[in-house]
Amino acid sequence: MYLVKRPNGSFMPAYPLDAEEAKRFGVGEIVQAKVTKPRNPKFHRKFFALLNVGFDYWTPSAEYKGRAVEKNMDRFREEVTILAGYYDVVASLGGSVRLKAKSIAFANMEEDEFERLYSAVINVILQKVLTTWTREDLDDVVDQVLRFAA
């Protein structure tokens, strides 16, 4: 539920759907909430448009036991995020260590960090996938994807 802070310090539902959700609670009823300031949802969509462009142009060149390796968007997002430097180091029960992409969920990453991630992911995609493209080329295609989706 999205809320807007009013001049008197109270909060009110930001959108009609939020107002409907708020009707579940009675006047004076105490509720518990975890409050976060949301990131820009348009920029979040732009990030996924960027990932989709990179994923669409990426062709895996690996085989496993004579079988072609299939593309997987979740794995692609994880890999470019790790290569961009946004990862946690985790251990298994067997003692091995691996890298796990940081969560980009609104509650887990502030806007300024997300902007740095976006820029770093652009660099990864240009270095690993779209090696003949410029930053401007990629920005133009991402903007076209966003306009088409709107």
Describe the largest sheet. 2 strands, antiparallel
Structural class: alpha+beta
Poorly predicted regions are: none
Q: What is the overall number of helices?
A: 5
Morphology call: extended
The proportion of residues in beta strands is: 5-15%
Number of beta-strand segments: 6
Topology order in helix (H) and strand (E) letters: EEHHEEHEEHH
Classify the helix fraction into a percent range.
40-55%
Oligomer: single chain
Number of domains: 2
Radius of gyration: 20 Å
Q: Ends: how far apart?
A: 23 Å
Q: Look at the structure and give the mean pLDDT.
A: 90
Strand order of the largest sheet: 1-2
Keywords:
5 helices; two-stranded antiparallel ribbon; 150 residues; two-stranded antiparallel sheet; 6 strands
How would you characterize this protein structure?
A hairpin with a 5-residue loop joins strand 1 and strand 2 (11-13). The protein has helices at 16-22, 41-57, 73-83, 111-128, 135-149; strands spanning 3-5, 11-13, 63-64, 67-68, 87-91, 97-101. The protein has 150 residues and is an alpha+beta fold. The chain has a two-stranded antiparallel ribbon with strand order 1-2. Strands 3-4 form a two-stranded antiparallel ribbon. The mean pLDDT is 90. The chain folds into two domains: 1-35, no CATH class; 41-149, no CATH class.
